Amino acid sequence: MLELSESGQIAVLRMNRPPVNALDTELCAALSDAIARAQADGAGGVVIAGQPGIFSGGLDVPALLELDRDAIREFWTLFFGVLRSITASTVPVAGAITGHSPAGGAVIALQCDYRVAADGDYKIGLNEVQVGLPIPAPIVTAMVELVGYRTARRLTTRGLMIPMAEAQALGLVDELVPDEQVVGRAIAWCEEMNDLPPIAMNTTRQQLNAFRLASLDSQYDVDTVTSHWFSDETQASMRALVARLKGSE
Q1: What is the separation, in whole angstroms, between the first and last Cα of the chain?
Q2: How many whole angstroms separate alpha carbon 242 and alpha carbon 249?
Q3: Distinct helix (H) and strand (E) counts, the chain
Q4: What does the pLDDT look like over 168-206, one tens digit per residue?
Q5: What is the CATH number of the domain that holds 74?
Q6: What residues are paired with 125 via a beta bridge?
Q7: Is the predicted pLDDT of residue 245 greater than 90, yes or no?
Q8: Does 102 map to a domain?
Q9: 3-class DSSP state of 3
Q10: Is 17 part of a structural domain of the chain?
Q11: What is the pLDDT of residue 246?
Q12: Over the range 191-228, which residues count as b (16 or more CB within 10 Å of their CB) and which as e?
């Protein structure tokens, strides 16, 4: 479910969990482990990518709905572990947004140092509210940091998915390139960062990430997120979503 490769000193982690790279316990654990391993092995940067047309479809809602409270609590612990591993990375992390990126996919992209997106008919956004799930505070913090309070408020409270061109204009993504160039351009950005004096560059980027990291450490509450998941409103909305998905198959 995670293809690992190298391009020079850059580690490339390509999610490969068909059909939409939905996030479950195993994929989250694999991502955290791969990011840690890349740094331990001396990588100069990390690229997190999806497959053509899809970065990640977000949480694997049908599978997660079948889990009990302890298993959901484990999932949220691992999911936020991925976010922390990206934000606390000692080397630059680029998101290669190869296609649609709703909800959890957008959350992963938010934590990256740089986001290269496919310039196609794709959308990105935090649409959790649309399916009855409150957005945890550290994720709101990351969104505000990227696009500003007013825009973050408009996008998140309505759960809007927006085209990539609008996302770039708002600062949610940094660069748009043709589909086939997304991963290569993300690698090239990491290489450009590596051309800078490494201690100065990485110390500076870690200082810039400190606010988001502090939010993850202080505002993240696995019990609160787990309680939200099992609330009547969220469960009803999620099960209605699964029914719609099954009906469209």
Answers
A1: 23
A2: 11
A3: 11, 10
A4: 999 999 999 999 999 999 999 999 999 999 999 999 999
A5: 3.90.226.10
A6: 102
A7: no
A8: yes
A9: strand
A10: yes
A11: 80
A12: bebbeeeeeeebeebbeebeebbebbeeebebeebbeb
